[in-house]
Specification:
Largest sheet: 4 strands, antiparallel
Distance between the termini: 49 Å
Radius of gyration: 14 Å
Shape: globular
Structural class: mainly beta
Number of strands: 11
Strand content: over 45%
Order of helices and strands: EEEEEEEEEEE
Strand order of the largest sheet: 4-5-6-7
Length: about 110
């Protein structure tokens, strides 16, 4: 359905799929829609599929945050490691602290 044109691509989730594209700044990650059109420009160092309305992305800072389908970084890029959201929570790591955040980025449980 979509002609091969991306170095790497992940599965579609919530109508979008993360893809690696060549940009003037080198290889970056963006998201395509099911027509194969770039819906979110390739500006991330890395990206994971959407789940529960948010997608984990690694920004140029080298940290991870979460974007919405309209490309807004709604949970700031402050994590070294992230997972996708399940049942309203996502596991993240910042420094030596590992825990779970809600969709506002607030820790609801963390290691001491």
């Amino acid at each position: 359905m979509i002609q091969p044109q991306y170095t790497t691509a992940y599965e579609f989730a919530e109508g979008l799929a993360p893809v690696e594209v060549k940009t003037t700044n080198g290889m970056r990650w963006g998201f395509i829609n099911k027509k194969g059109d770039l819906a979110i420009s390739g500006r991330f160092n890395n990206a994971q599929p959407f789940q529960e309305g948010l997608a984990p992305v690694e920004t140029s800072s080298g940290k991870w945050g979460y974007i919405t389908a309209d490309s807004k970084l709604t949970i700031p890029d402050r994590y070294e490691r992230v997972d996708r959201f399940y049942n309203g929570l996502a596991q993240v790591q910042t420094g030596s602290k590992v825990g779970y955040i809600d969709k506002t980025g607030k820790f609801v449980w963390e290691t001491k």
